Amino acid sequence: MSVLDVFGDDARRDEPGAAPPPSPAETATAPARRGRGTWPPALLAGSILFGVIATLLLLAPWLAPYPPAQQDLVARLEGSSAAHLLGTDHLGRDVLSRLLDGGRFSLAIASVTLLICAVTGTLVGFVVARRGGWLDTVVMRVTDILLAFPEMVVALFLVAILGTGDLTLVLALTIGGWTPFCRLARGVALEINGRDFIEAAQALGCSGWFIIRRHLLPNALPPLLAHAAVRFGHKLITVGALSFLGLGVQPPFSDWGSMLSEAIPYLDRLPMLVLAPGAAIFIAALSVTLAGRGLETRRARAGRST
Fold it and tell me: Which of 98, 183, 214, 288 has the fewest CB atoms lying closer than 10 Å?
């Protein structure tokens, strides 16, 4: 029996060239590091599902079997078949082709409005957190007022002034949509404003924009991304609802909401006309919401492990 067999790991640690044992700190943080690098199931499932949907919509001009506005009155209100996988609508247009084409508009409007809201709200939140005083008070009261009005009410008000169209839809989704991002960015900025690295940057004479770009934005980015993913699903549903009411895209163009509106009179005869765009809105909103919840879970795990 050798010395190594008797003394085990203690003797092996004394061997020349042997790796030093892990410190207690490394041992304690190893599981946290492993957990921090894993993706929650919701984030993985939502990302994959949304990636598939986005790919299909980007390739819609090549995947659609027919032009989305092509009419065939002889083949109107037909069910699923080899020629029309999801059937045809009341004007003989292929439902699958219109679904792919309309989804591009729905996702484009939701993406544009979300980007405007996120950028505007984040910048305003950072600025008021840095300035404070009366500016912070005024901006917070404005956000309270805007949050009191649902987007539907704002859209109806704008239609009375500007008329229907894409501009009305974007304005309705943007006017109050920046306020949640503003509150979130302001909260993160207020939390870290008193930390040592912020005070050191101020002592060195760094400008306010440098502090926002270099310190506030990196710290606020994870919660902002998680919130943006959740808000994207809400935007998508709102776009569909406004288009359903006739406040969105106008004929001959279409999106998922207008397809639902046009299909309601034929629900008892051909349910697929309602089920197809309804399922598309539900699955797309579900995918980004799952991804957003997964991002929040991953951020919470990372926070607990630090």
Answer: 214
Is the pLDDT at 35 greater than 70? The verdict is no
In the numeric block, which tokens belong to residue 209? 């924009």
What's this model's pTM, rounded to 2 decimal places? Answer: 0.77
Overall average pLDDT of the 55-68 stretch: 88
Average pLDDT rounded to a whole number, residues 105-124: 90
Task: Answer yes or no: are the C-beta atoms of 291 and 236 closer than 8 Å.
Answer: no
Long-range contacts of 200-208, Cβ-Cβ distance < 8 Å, separation of 24 or more:
208/127, 208/130
Distance CA 207, CA 159 (A): 42
Instruction: Select from 184, 183, 159, 185 the least CA-distant residue to 171.
Output: 159
* Two tokens, residue 38: 């894993």
The β-bridge partners of 88 are: 94
For 46-62, letters b (16+ CB in 10 Å) and e give bbebbeebbeebeebee
Q: Mean of the pLDDT values across residues 93-110?
A: 88
- The amino acid sitting at 238 is T
